[in-house]
Amino acid sequence: MDHVLSLPALLTDRFQAVTGVDPELRPATKPQFGHFQSNVALRLAKAEGKPPREIAQRIVAEADVADLCEPLEVAGPGFINIRLRSDVLAGVVTGILRDPDAVIEQSADPQRVVIDYSAPNVAKPMHVGNLRSTIIGDCFARVLRAQGHTVIAQNHIGDWGTQFGMLVEQILVEGIDADSLDLDSSVALYRRAQEHFRSDEAFADAARRRVVALQSGDEQTRAIWRSLIEVSKAGFNAAYRRLGVLLTDDDLAGESIYNDLLAGVADDLSAAGIAVVDQGALVVFVPGDDAPLIVRKSDGGYGYAATDLAAVRYRFGTLDADRCIYVVGSPQAHHFSQVFAVSRMAGWVPSGGVLEHVGFGSVLGPDGKMFKTRDGKTVTLDTLLDLAEDVAAPEIAMAAVKYADLSTSLHKDYVFDADRMVATTGNTGPYLQYAHARVSGILRKADAEGWASDGVTVLDDPAEQALALLLSRFGEIVDEVASGLQPHKLCTYLFDTATALSTFYEQCPVLKSEGEVRTSRLAICAATRTVLAKGLYLLGIVAPERM
Ligand code: ARG
Fold first, then answer.
1. How big is the chain by its Cα radius of gyration, in Å?
2. Does residue 328 have its Cβ closer than 6 Å to ligand 1?
């Protein structure tokens, strides 16, 4: 058997060789039905106009699965019940012990994957949208790297735009040393500059001239702008450290890096007849879309959309990406659908090149409305993390926040409920950490007494089998997250595994049992610890040895 770790996939292949269609194996609804069930005979019966049980009997007779399964059974109107042989399941678990890294299969077709995530804005506090993007993008980066893909993280920070004219001008007016600012004081400066811009016409004019100076590379202006970025970067990095995500300065690829490419984007789109002048602006009408995408504003300036067009071109053309994933809140779905459509029209996306926007919902307050502070401001990342740390130690608080973010399907809004999130019971990050710590504790005790693993040699109890079956599915689930980009599937899987582990403890004493049963159960524990640790790592959650 070459493909031990993906039993369901292997079984599917074997059945399909007989049925010609996907047998759609489903986990059995009751242990007495075995491990999987298939209703393929009922589906084929309709098409062939024969009794389903007769078809089921034929499949059972012809399917070449004796090396994997106990004799197959036909049940009820024509269901096929499939029970894996316990030596096969035991072999899978032993395989995890022998070669823990092989639980995640290396991709046969490693790709270069750009992931655009986090992307906070300079001189603005990181908000909950940036928090979600950071956590979700970090999970994708870990999953894809684990499969052997080359992940190119692109932190598309907001470090360019007309607001910098206003910021630099305010610094000069106030005579501040830009290097002495930090993220908080630059946020306060932003507010003063905005107020000043609204109330003082002369200042507004100076700010507009300052934008031109910035764009044309005026040295003093550029120096202050660079300082503002440094200050914010330090703030972002502090947040990344606190969150324990993999982003570094090497991943910074802010809006400003595309500045020199924008005119070329506009020119090429016009020359190709894709972009047209409409009321003084250069726009693209995307078929099937009422609103045009604005490439160049009527005042000659370029905005957010032009920058994203240049970014697509750069990512496929220069970074040589096969796949680009954008982890940005759902309100920007329309923006990305337009940018992607125009990029394809322009021929910047190679054939087979993938562009995906992974949107996500909002974080809601306890009242079920958009999460706001008492004085109505948007909640910053630090405030959120503080709320979780008020009720739990940092490592647990981070697990709680991340898991809450990743465990509901991304497009849904979720309520930030710190007390529920940090609970060590229920479907939470700390529950999984606890499961890992508990199994580590058992292995620590056994190690102290000395034991040698012979792999899994006894696997008779249904609770052992259920756990082993779950362990055998890990690679498949990781694969599913890598392709479908739905982290909650990994969360659900890990929660099911932790739950099966706790049932296993109840039904099958480990340290108190003896001889071969004991070493075999310890081996199951060790393999489960490996899967939990790797799974938590992929979610960006620390797997503690003790808790
Ligand atoms: N800075 C933007 C924001 O805070 C997110 C940027 C997302 N990435 C992109 N390529 N547009 O909303």
1. 28
2. yes
| Cβ(161) – ligand 1 distance below 6 Å | no
Which of 223, 238, 148, 142 has the alpha carbon at shortest distance from 184? 238
- For residue 323, what are the β-bridge partners? 113, 354
CA diameter of the chain: 89
Domain residue extents for the chain: 7-84, 161-246
In this structure, which topology does domain 7-84 adopt according to CATH? Gyrase A; domain 2 (3.30.1360)
Residue 113 pLDDT > 80: yes
The residue whose two tokens read 């659908």 is 337
339-361 pLDDT, tens digit each: 999 999 999 999 999 999 999 99
Residue type, 375: D
Does the beta carbon of 158 lie inside 6 Å of ligand 1? yes
Quote the CA–CA distance of 503 and 202 in Å, as a whole number: 72
Measured from the Cα of 124, ligand 1's closest atom is 4
User: How many other C-beta atoms lie within 10 A of the C-beta of residue 273?
Assistant: 7
116 in contact with ligand 1, CB cutoff 6 A: yes
CB of 152 sitting under 6 A from ligand 1: no
156 close to ligand 1 (CB < 6 Angstrom) = yes
Among 114, 328, 339, 343, residue to substitute to test ligand 1 (most atoms within 8 Å of Cβ)? 328
Computed over every residue of the chain, the mean pLDDT equals: 95
Token code pair at residue 507: 């039904």
Does this model's pTM top 0.90? My answer is yes
Find out whether 55 and 48 touch, Cβ atoms under 8 Å: yes
